[in-house]
Hints:
Layout: H1 2-30, E1 44-45, H2 59-63, E2 82-83, H3 85-95, E3 98-99, E4 115-120, H4 124-135, E5 144-149, H5 154-161, E6 167-172, H6 198-204, H7 221-240, E7 251-255, E8 258-259, H8 264-278, E9 284-288, E10 307-312, E11 319-322, H9 324-331, H10 334-339, H11 345-354, E12 363-367, E13 373-374, H12 391-402, E14 414-417, H13 434-442, H14 454-467
Parallel strand pairs: 4-5, 4-7, 5-6, 9-12, 10-14
Antiparallel strand pairs: 1-2, 3-6, 7-11, 8-13, 9-11, 10-12
Helix pairs in contact: 4-5, 13-14
Amino acid sequence: MLPRVLPRLLKTLLLVLLVMFLLTLLHDTQAPSARPGDSHMEDVPASRAAELPSTAPSAALMNRAESVDKRDKRGQAPRPEKRSLAEVIAQLNAAQTIRTPDGTAAEPLVSTDVVVVVQVHKRLDYLRQLIQSLRAARGIDHTLVIFSHDVFDEEVNRAVGEVDFCRVMQIFYPYSLQLHNSTFPGRAEGDCPHDVSPARARRLGCTSWRSPDRYGHYRQPGLTQIKHHWWWKAKRVFDQLEYTRHHPGLFLFIEEDHYVPPDFLHMLAVMQAARKDHCPQCNVLSLGAQALSADFRAYRDPVKSAGVYLTPWTGYQGLMAFDRRTWKLIHACATEFCTFDDYNWDWSLQHLSRSGCTQQPLYTMLTKAPRVFHVGECGVHNAGDDCDKFSLLNKIKVILDSAKSLQFPKNLTQFSVVDVPMKRVRANGGWGDPRDHVLCITGRLPQTKSKDMGETQRDQVLESRSAHGGRSGF
Length: 474
């Protein structure tokens, strides 16, 4: 019996082995091979961590499209991890990279060095003009310019990457509308429409219907972001960046649609020197007004071109420089700043000073002939198609060219005291949502427990106030 069955068993075994061999061969032929340069259009791989650029963020990071193999100890190449744009921005912020003109390590800041902090959105034409004016400024090679972005944009990053005349750093606001376009602090599902009445909002049951601003309106993310960004970047440069958090010198805060003459740093130094004898109470130095109109006639006056006003600081004088001592006065009022119902950061600062929250009122030495110009005629409040974005800038360039002989004064020649009634600031609204208060105070996204955020966020604000002594900053 066995001799007749054995050949049949052997034949069956051979057929099984042949099928297994063919299946193995077919699998190896179809298996994908790991190729350098394979792209994943959705994310940036974690293996790029060691290769973040020392210059401006690259197009590869902007597109989030590059993939690099990361081999393990056995020489195998597992599929790389993916990174979102938010993770890339977190990685860039953590790196705190400083570029220098010659590519060497940045020298430590000294007390006379000015840190210029530029708030950037995506108004590229204005930004290029600002960079051009910074390039022409005398003493710019001794400054650090920090560009603080609320949009990660390839063209903007490329423009900043071309800065080769001073130390440069880029930081990115991590709670931008770009990163949160469909969740808070962007417009989240269920948010109340801006112009709906509180009664209608209650019937709709929309988010934070209990918390309109003082004029009965609900938040507009595009406006609230400006105040959030300003406060975040101020805390970032004064308290968090290793390179600047102990710097005792001046920090000048400007924006992408500003323009500076060649002597703006020189004028800051002259004002700083004169402060001790002529205005010891001046804790802010203002190089111009936020208003688009300026007294250009002062440039043609030999006295006024080197003159200053001594006056209480107001939101109109938003082109401001101050040091760490003044920041401590402001930061001590963090909760008041973050809960004041005004979407303007400068009006909120003025409120801190006028309300008595700061231990000393903000008092300024203001140049009569501006050394920083606000040239952004076309923007948030004027975005019509007929807006000529460079008409004012061209006028300013002509005036500056005609007044070259009056630039770089050796000393200040005129000090004019201007008394301003210290009335309380009337809030402009736009900042009634408790979620904005929590994000501003804590630097973290608020917790969400239900569709009606009112009670939850109020509790968080009250807890923050209690934990930090009411007006104390943190």
